[in-house]
């Protein structure tokens, strides 16, 4: 089961993104195409391969499992996250909660979001239902973001490149997701 | 008592500087001049990384008023050398304040909401204005502002009034620049907070002295049309 996190600035530019593979539930079935190829080749062409395998599997097993390439399809993920922004922006005008759970759905993906008071948007794509875990994860990311924000050289539009930030977010993802 | 002996750190610094001044031209010596003195007597006081530090403060954080006043006076002077007029100066002070405001908002709300079960944002304008008047002012200046007023003529104008703005306490504006209000800096903070919460506005500062409060300052908020429209919808 994978999770995809995007941090978006108030003007919707992505500042940070993270793909997290949760150890907890179902093991990802590796796509049949990539298992035949050596490791180095799959890593280089991961996107193409999963796209291909997604296409082939839909032909072979009619609707058996609907997971698009095990969630590794980068461009589809980004598109879903982007598409959910419309819904998020509508909701955040009328709801005063920071954590907006399950705002959007697309195939197997559910989109949850967290809006900070400074209008940063955290968007998370996930497959299962895990409201409390996701909430704790978002609050952790918020704390880390506030700390990043306190850097005088950081603006609301600076991409976050700190390795410590990255490590901390990953650790929190491991704990809560 | 405390100053009877020269501070150990001072003596170390002077030692190292005399030692290096002897070998001033040797490149090896010049690198040691810039390295920190590593004597066993001094504990290495590396501040923990920001990610390792706690954001909640148990005691009220206080900043030296003199240090702040000095810093702010330098900021105003620096800015003034680079602008063509009062409007420009105020605009730049506003920009400087804006940078503070984005951080104040995020940190202040984090401290208030992060422990709650369902953290909330402010989505209505009037409560947001109230929280600026009390919480933001308390976070930045240590006391709430003195009043909030709503313009009678224009529905989109609101005012926050401070009878004795902290940042202007030691500033006397020259006669030929009487329009200048250094509280433009504060206006920038307010603008950032409003912007962050999704109420875009133009915020300016004006001197409105009275007999009792000679440095009384009005922070004028002129909301964008979209905010009023949204408020109508939410009603």
Automatic annotation (TrEMBL), chain A:
Gene3D superfamilies from the UniProt entry: 3.30.450.70
InterPro entries linked: Longin-like_dom_sf, Sedlin
CDD domains, alphabetized: TRAPPC2_sedlin
Pfam families recorded: Sedlin_N
GO BP annotations listed: endoplasmic reticulum to Golgi vesicle-mediated transport
This protein's GO CC annotations: cytoplasm
PANTHER family hit by this protein: TRAFFICKING PROTEIN PARTICLE COMPLEX SUBUNIT 2 (PTHR12403)
Name of the protein in its database record: Transport protein particle complex subunit
Automatic annotation (TrEMBL), chain B:
Chief location bin: endoplasmic reticulum
Localization, UniProt: Endoplasmic reticulum; Golgi apparatus, cis-Golgi network
Coiled coil region boundaries: none
KW Transport (keyword) present: yes
Record keyword Membrane present: no
The organism's place on the tree of life at top rank: Eukaryota
Alphabetical UniProt keywords: Endoplasmic reticulum, ER-Golgi transport, Golgi apparatus, Transport
Subunit organization: Part of the multisubunit TRAPP (transport protein particle) complex.
A GO BP annotation: endoplasmic reticulum to Golgi vesicle-mediated transport
Protein name per Swiss-Prot or TrEMBL: Trafficking protein particle complex subunit
């Amino acid at each position: 089961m994978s999770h995809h996190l995007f941090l978006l600035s108030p003007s919707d530019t992505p500042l940070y993104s993270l793909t997290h593979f949760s150890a907890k539930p179902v093991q990802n079935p590796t796509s049949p195409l990539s298992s035949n190829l050596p490791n180095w080749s799959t890593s280089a062409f991961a996107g193409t391969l999963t796209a291909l395998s997604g296409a082939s599997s839909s032909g072979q097993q009619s609707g058996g499992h609907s997971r698009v390439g095990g969630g590794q399809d980068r461009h589809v993920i980004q598109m879903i996250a982007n598409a959910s922004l419309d819904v998020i922006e509508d909701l955040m005008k009328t709801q005063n909660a920071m954590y907006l759970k399950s705002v959007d759905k697309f195939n197997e993906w559910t989109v949850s979001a967290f809006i900070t008071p400074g209008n940063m948007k955290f968007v998370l794509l996930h497959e299962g239902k895990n409201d409390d875990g996701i909430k704790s994860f978002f609050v952790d990311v918020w704390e880390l973001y506030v700390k990043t924000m306190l850097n005088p050289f950081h603006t609301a539009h600076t991409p976050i490149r700190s390795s410590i930030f990255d490590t901390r977010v990953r650790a929190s993802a491991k704990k809560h997701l | 008592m405390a100053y009877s002996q020269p501070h150990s750190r001072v003596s170390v610094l002077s030692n190292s500087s005399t030692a290096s001044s002897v070998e001033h031209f040797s490149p090896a010596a010049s690198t040691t001049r810039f390295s920190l003195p590593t004597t066993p007597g001094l504990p290495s006081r590396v501040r923990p990384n920001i990610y390792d530090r706690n954001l909640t403060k148990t005691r009220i954080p206080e900043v030296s008023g003199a240090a702040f006043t000095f810093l702010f006076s330098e900021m105003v002077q620096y800015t003034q050398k680079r602008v063509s007029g009062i409007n420009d100066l105020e605009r730049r002070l506003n920009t400087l304040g804006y940078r503070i405001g984005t951080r104040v908002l995020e940190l202040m709300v984090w401290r208030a909401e992060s422990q709650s079960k369902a953290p909330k944002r402010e989505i209505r304008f009037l409560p947001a204005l109230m929280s600026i008047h009390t919480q933001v002012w308390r976070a930045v200046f240590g006391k709430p502002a003195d009043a909030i007023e709503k313009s009678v003529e224009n529905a989109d104008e609101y005012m926050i009034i401070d009878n004795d703005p902290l940042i202007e306490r030691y500033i006397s504006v020259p006669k030929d620049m009487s329009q200048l209000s250094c509280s433009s800096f504060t206006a920038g903070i307010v603008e950032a907070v409003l912007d962050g919460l999704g109420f875009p506005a133009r915020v300016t500062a004006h001197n409105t002295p009275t007999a009792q409060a000679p440095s009384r300052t009005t922070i004028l908020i002129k909301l964008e049309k979209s905010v009023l429209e949204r408020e109508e919808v939410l009603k």
